[in-house]
Each structure stands twice: as structure tokens, then as C-alpha cells.
Amino acid sequence: MAEADSSPSLNIIVESNPSKSRLSELGIKSWPKWGCPPGKYTLKFDAQQTCYFLKGKVKAYQKGSSECVEFGAGDLVIIPKGLSCTWDVSIPVDKHYQFESSS
Fold this sequence. Notes:
Blueprint: E1 13-16, H1 20-26, E2 33-36, E3 39-44, E4 49-62, E5 68-72, E6 75-79, E7 84-99
Antiparallel strand pairs: 1-6, 2-7, 3-7, 4-5, 4-6, 4-7
Protein name: C-type lectin domain family 6 member A like
Keywords: Lectin
GO molecular function, one term: carbohydrate binding
């Protein structure tokens, strides 16, 4: 019998300074770009998002948790589907991003 996925901890995966070959393999330069000024943003991810930070510094607090995950310029970040979090942006963000198309 398969267990229902009721795991409350959806983990953000941060890959620091991925190689140029990894970035070109992913086709990051062709992904759309998004940016935001410093501030706090409440975000809900309805699909898995992979993003590569060109600039910025973010502390992401998962909903209901006081622990944060930090990431920023030079990081490849994978945000799981279903995650609700608050981004505390201290340095303006400029990133390439892609949503997972499969469900």
C-alpha cells in the first residue's frame, strides 16, 4: 500500500555555483527572467520551479516555520510544488526561472 504524501516539510534545494556546462545543459539563458526589489513577499508555488539567481539575496521562510533557507546570486534553486513561503529579499533579485510542466 502506497503512503499518501502528507509530508509537511517541502525542501528547497540550493545548488551553489553550478558549472557552466550544467547551466547550458538546462538552457537557462532561454528561460524567462523575473526580478523584484527588496521587501517581503508571500509566495505559493503551484508547480515546481527551478531558478538561477543572477543577482540578489533571499531568506525563504516556509509557512509555519521560523527556519529559513538562504540563497542568492550564483545559486541554482529548486522550489517544490505546493510550497508556501515568505521571501525576505535584502538585495534586489534578478533571476531566470522555469516551471515544471509535468504534474
